[in-house]
Structure formats: structure tokens, C-alpha cells
Amino acid sequence: MSKSESRSHVLITGATAGIGYELAKLFAMDGHNLILIARDKEKLKEVKKHLEIYNINVDILSVDLSVDSSCEQVFAFVDKKNLTVDILINNAGVGSFGDFSSIPMKKELALIDINIRALTELTKHFLYKMVENENGTIMNVASTAAFCAGPRMATYYASKAYVLNLTEALNEEVKNKGVKVSCLCPGAVNTGFQNKAGIKKNENAKKNIMSAKKVAQIAYRDLEKGKTIIIPGFKNKILVIVNKFLPRVISRKIIFKINNG
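^ that's the sequence the OP posted. Answer follows.
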């Protein structure tokens, strides 16, 4: 039996940097074969080279998940190689920053396509097969933003609320069918996401940013424990708890002030 057949396969989107890359390393070190999805083909090749030192198979696919046909490309790639995805990590995500009325529609729709549409398509496709096999794990990456409304990042916060609610509902549906669906909800992470989204953080806010490596370690540990909602960092857990008791009108005013810098 080849190593490709004898070990589980983990499919990770957004796998060339940040949390996705750190999770890929952790799975690789534990002997899991990898299917890595990202836009940058050259970075994928570099990551593949780095991770193959762990004596695993690393398959890579360059695809833009904001394109309608992107998920079909992923499915065709997996089927052509006759691979079974035992673990799916929906990590790919983008943000947008500014007043909703001023952000270009194209940018908002690309966010929705990546954060919501692609995540939903990938989850539905592989969850069906996992339920059929009575085995599998899915982790969808949301954010602490999922727990509140986010003025000046309205679409991003709303997209992460969708991810959290979808994940909780699916886990309830399949928890007795041999499948686990978890949601990772980190706070600010040092991944370059902030700069890409156009977010400027003050010095105090920067102090609370966690490293992608630390977030991945916590996520990996709690995923093995079977936790449904994973919130890395004590401060982030406290913020989520406090937010539950705040009237929404106050919560959104606080977020508005924070997002205004």
C-alpha cells in the first residue's frame, strides 16, 4: 500500500501563508498527506517542497476561489487523483475595510464568493462523502467578528457570522454520523490579512495580535479534542463572552470606534 493510500488526506484552502500554512505543517508532522489549495502557484510549489521533508504526499492546485467554477476544479482535481478527503480545512478568506457605500462592489462580491460561496460548496461536497463513509472532520475558519456586527467591515463581519452559524448547524446534523464540524474563531492574527484588507491598527491593538503559529497550534489541539467552537487566546474568549451580555446597540458602537482607529 502506498503512503498516498495508507494515510489520511487533509485539504487546506489558503494554504501558502498564515494559519493555513501553519496548520499544513502540523498535519504534515503528524503524517497526514496534504492537498493544498491557493492562488499563487509558485508559493504552492515552495510550500510543497518544504513539507515533503516529512515523507508525505503533497498535492497542490492553483485556483482562485472567487471564480464561480473554482470549486468544480477542486472536485475534478481530487477525483482525477482518486483521493479521499478525510479532513477539510476551509481557511481561505479575505476582508474589506471602509464604509459599505464606498467599497467597490467587485471587491465585496469577491469577498462573498471566497468567504461564503466557496466555503459552502466545498463543505457540502466533502461533507456528503464523509457522512457516506461515516468518517471525517471539517474546520471552517471564521473570526471573533462572527459574534457581532462590524461597522466599516460590514460584509466581512456578516460573512463570518454566516460561517459560524453554518458550522454549528452542520455539526448538530452530523455529530452522530461519525463526522465532526468545527469553527475556528481567532481574533486579530499576524498574517498580512490586515494590510490586504486595508486595515490600520494602532499600537495598542497591535499588542493583542496573535501569531499564526500559535493560533494554528491551539486550533489543531482543540480540533483533536472535538471542540465545536474554537476561540484562541484568553483575551479573545473574554471579549466574546462580554459581547454576549452587551446590548447590540452598544456592541456595534464599540466596534465602530475600534474600526475607526
